[in-house]
Structure formats: C-alpha cells, structure tokens
Design goal:
The protein has about 90 residues and is an alpha/beta fold. It has two helices and three strands, in the order βαβαβ. A three-stranded parallel sheet has the order 1-2-3, covered by helices on one side. β1, α1 and β2 form a beta-alpha-beta unit. It is globular, with a radius of gyration of 13 Å.
C-alpha cells in the first residue's frame, strides 16, 4: 500500500517535534489523519514500540496543546500507525 499527502493526510516517518503543529493545523480545519511510519514518498517504513509512540502523542497533546480543544475537536483527528512487518510475525 502506498500513501500520499493531501490537505487531510500527513505522512510522518517517525514521531517528531512537529507533530503538535500538525495536530493544531488539523484541529483548525476540518480534521485529518496523520500516518506515522510512512516515508514522504508514501512507502511504509514502519515504527517500533507502538505503546511508546502512543504515550508520546498523548503527552504532546496534553502538554503542548491547550486543553480547551478537548474533547470536541479531537473527533476530526485520527492517527494511523504503520507497524514493522516483523511485528506481525
């Protein structure tokens, strides 16, 4: 499967400090999906340690984005994680 960036889709190879900026951009529009574990060319590179990644995103949201945005505006935002193939074996 190959992915492409659009107005409502953001591709991230890994978690970075720019994730809160992407979240706010989607919250200020009509929402969107952030795919983590996908290269800029749309190919899947996968991520390791899904639980750690989820915890980091929650921490970013809680510490860097105003709490007034919750929970109503989060309904328009989704995260998709592309895992490494070895995680399926």
């Amino acid at each position: 499967m190959t992915f492409a960036e659009t107005e409502k889709t953001e591709l991230k190879q890994k978690l970075t400090d720019s994730i809160p900026k992407e979240i706010v951009a989607f919250l200020n529009t009509h929402g969107g999906t952030i795919y983590i574990g996908v290269n800029d060319d749309g190919s899947v590179c996968g991520i390791e340690k899904l639980d750690d990644s989820l915890k980091k995103i929650v921490d970013m949201i809680e510490s860097q984005i105003l709490p007034e945005t919750f929970p109503s505006t989060l309904n328009n935002l989704t995260f998709q994680f592309c895992l490494l193939k070895k995680d399926f074996l």
